[in-house]
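[step 3/7] fold_predict: job queued, chain A
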Amino acid sequence: MTDAAQLRSLVSDLLAAKPPATTDPVDFLKARFDAGLAWVHYPVGLGGLDAPRSLQPVVDAELAAAGAPDNDPRRIGIGLGMAAPTILRYGTEEQKRRFLRPLWVGEEVWCQLFSEPGAGSDLAALGTRAVRDGDTWVVDGQKVWTSSAHLARWAILIARTDPDLPKHQGISYFICDMTDPGVEVRPLRQITGEAEFNEVFLTGVRIPDAHRLGEVGEGWKVAQTTLMNERVSIGGMRLPREGGMIGPVARTWRERSELRTHDLHQRLLTLWVEAEVARLTGERLRQQLVAGQPGPEGSGMKLAFARLNQEISGLEVELLGQDGLLYSDWTMRRPELVDFTGRDAGYRYLRSKGNSIEGGTSEVLLNIVAERVLGLPAEPRNDKDVAWKDLTR
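[step 4/7] structure written:
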């Protein structure tokens, strides 16, 4: 299907069969998925119609105009942005049919068990072990910085299955049931006062081999699909003009003329232009995705996202003067999502400090851009051919 008129006709049929005003939101979303209008570029039967990705906005606009419910993508962003494209590319048919529908509908929240206390920037050095026992794998280890682990039913997990191989080669990729015995989630309280992140302890967790994604020992290759999609979903999200962090500070500038100075004006203009350039670059990146999987360019977008958020939030605090030093609520909460624009300036300033760490540190992403986008010589690495068990830790 390549015709926007055909898609509009399918949307009209869906709205007639499931009027949003009288249909349970979850039932509507299930019907939308089954009609192929969830991800139109996905295969038929898996929420799509094998249509060009560029036609998705046609569907979204028609449904939004009709007041149809969405799947609250901020709450299930890890599932939508990371788990789903990885399952689509490497999952078996059974895995795709089991996981994609409840993931997209939002019935099952996902989290990501990648980083560890000793393996963050050097993720391939991870030490969580998965040992095969018949048709299951027994997993032991610790993961950290796990967003939404307190809400998640499922996790995408990488673990070491062969310590005798070099670190990138002895890793396998699994789907872990977060409700299984041996999975313990502990909150990590952040500078904001909240605990949206967690640490996760895995003790004798048994994962069926049927929940492995990709071949044994090819987990690093599978993880690259996850990581590239993660950086696009963080740095390349679709925004309107003055969407994101630049919106609140621009509104404050217009509404409170007494706060303005020439220096702040010049800085705001510079950041406004950079935010708009980043937004338009994100649109171009999404158009490139029509042709295939995301590449290292997403790392550049995520770099820009982190820097701009931190600089814009710093400017906002400075613009507000004494009011910028206030922080509304230090209550310990475990939120369902990160809400940058719905909170106060103090929250934006504090929370944005994590943007240069989460989803790949800015230092690691600079290396990716240098080596894989600009083609500069790779950094010397003396551990790529050494068995993981022989590495100094």
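[step 5/7] annotate
The first helix runs from residue 4 to 17.
DSSP finds eleven helices and eight strands in the chain.
exit 0
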